């Protein structure tokens, strides 16, 4: 009943390590991914099986399968793999799962989630097809831009300052989210996502043109609240555009006079 | 208690085949149609008794009645008919039901659902009055167009390539959905829907001008997720129109450089 | 324990006829008004205690109180009055209740609901502050118009042809909803609502400028589905306006060729 | 087990006064704050840990902690402080809590909530990041304005006339909500909020530029319904702006002719 410590699949056995996705704890990743995805469905982030979420607990990575209705997902639908075992794999494109669901295929988002875990030590990564995210990339495309930039909005404080930095962005700081071009196959996005991570070492998100956004955080709480804050800002940005209001402004800070 | 094997109605008997809509299985069509329609109501797809859904299980077709509040539907409200028996009927407009609810009338959508089942071997067909769908048909009307066309959006991958073809559309593919003109009586749409199916053999949906959309799929999962993806694209298209962004673009594919 | 048959209040007694609002049947008006209002709250129709609903069951009229949070209402909050007793009242502005909740005040909407019951024999009347309704009245105000008119939209079929007429409007019919000007006190709207009912004998709804809409029907089902259909059309109309699309068009009917 | 009557923290003891947040009554502030915040989350008011709510019950003030997901809050997450003890504090910026949750930090909103309690004797104060509120402040910024003004909309009646005044605003009254500039640190807003309260003695809300809104009321019911009414008006105002409709108009009152 113990999982293979090497992280290699339990070949030639009938043991599928189902215990890895069986828990009474609602905070267990195999329970949390379905409940998060059901919530994301109501927000329009994972419409029509698009988008998803992955959680890392130490060496173990929990992943939703491909093509599942996100509001109907069950813990038994979840894939589990070992980061350490994956790192030893000869090919980046081949993945070995500790536990697989009986009927599904692995998600094409898998290598993108893994990039957040390996390059950023993230504890959770969320991918949405939010139409606010897509509209922002379309507006930026018309401007020939590969960066979403917004400043002087309170909700910007919802983001951490960056990888291995403590504290959050401030109200007057400019939040910068890189945009990468979409590829025909989602797996092929991986190198461009990693490139963006290298170029923007402090970002917690990467927009994908005409596709959506990847957002991560040190843990589920941070990934989810950063993803919410970002979607809020994307929606605000689209509405500001419709009203002719600029995303970047030069605001004189308001200084408190009282010292008490 | 056994249903008539001929599919003809149990005339001169009091047997209404109620067992056909009685099941403890939430995946049984008589349970699934009410739960799907309740969900669709929250999405604004079946407002004010408009719209609906039908499921085919082998030869049996399960149908919501006319004029029912879609979020309050019960399994006992469901009609059941036999496709084989219907095919033997002398008139297309006369339908014989294996099972009828006690108080309702059959839906005018019935022949349109049957078209998806007989001409496309669909397992489920959904009809929505989504205002995004209606707005798209109005925008196209102003352009004198009878086709919704959009390309280079990730969500397009949510659609199958076409009838009896395997695989899904790609990111760069153009999704084409025909638009038919609305008729005074919904049943009269049938010939135009069938015509559109003939002219667009690979489409899984037909827009109805100033009315809504019919979407089908090989099974409930595919019909529902295609319907969600389409509604997402209709909403995006309306918002793109408001922002002055074109639905069809010429995007240079982004080619991955890494071979691993 | 029997209610006073005269419909006069049970003066000098401690009997408040609480049994009139106590029932295990979810379809009982005292249970239905709270559940409907909770649903309407999620639709944005009864924000901030605005709006409401009333049901008539024979001679008895069930009413929500003033100033209650609509999504939190309880059966014990409901007022009950007798139409017959009310008709004998010397003053239109004085109302005698068979049953009153212990802490609330009667709603200012009461005489408007009563107008629908007495002049139209309605079984249910709904009042919303839907911002789609308000926006439609504002757009019409700029055009100097006192009528909302829309045609050639499928959802128009959601309305009955008119008082004591059978059947519903058709797709090509023009739905006409009169607009009355708002008054400082909601009770004062009554005469203008009644005037509009006289001038538009077949309407099931009256818009109130900068305020919202009153919608009724022969029963709860019809009032609710007509209210939903109307809100759908108001939303569509605002979006059409934003896209520069006209509400009234001249559409050539599409005639079916097949006779089968 | 009795709380310190001085309101000072129970130093050198292990007693954290947890009983202050333990109750079976759903109307107890420690239960009400989580259920209200969960509702506000669905309205988009407290996205990504932004915003919050505080309730005062006599001398005791109940506060949500900083950085918590508002739809997941639990009674055990709540801070409690004594207004009287706080008033004796040497520094405005130092606060002593009767009861603190084990893992969180106090919210930066705390002094702003306290301002509503001490300067207005409010029973509840709500802070939202509603994007309608933010958009209104952005539109006003472009106009160089520090006041949101709207009149002749029915929902304006949802507001009280002012501090220690009885009755509500009327339909033709102009609702005026002051706008203060945002500061880098939320606590620093306090003096500007208090300044706005002094300058606008009858307001129940203060907008914060590019940030959101603070709304209070004599009790939870009033704070919540005023906050809902205000958000409704902000949304309407943004939509009116998009349609080119003015917020302030000169409307001739409609006078009833009937005297009965």
From TrEMBL, chains A, B, C, D:
Q: Which domain of life is it from?
A: Eukaryota
How the cofactor binds, per note? Binds 1 zinc ion per subunit.
Q: Which reaction does it catalyse?
A: 5-(methylsulfanyl)-D-ribulose 1-phosphate = 5-methylsulfanyl-2,3-dioxopentyl phosphate + H2O
Catalytic center at which residues? 154
Checking Gene3D superfamilies in the record gives:
Class II aldolase/adducin N-terminal domain
Location in or out of the cell? Cytoplasm
**Protein name (database record):** Methylthioribulose-1-phosphate dehydratase
Q: Which gene encodes it?
A: MDE1
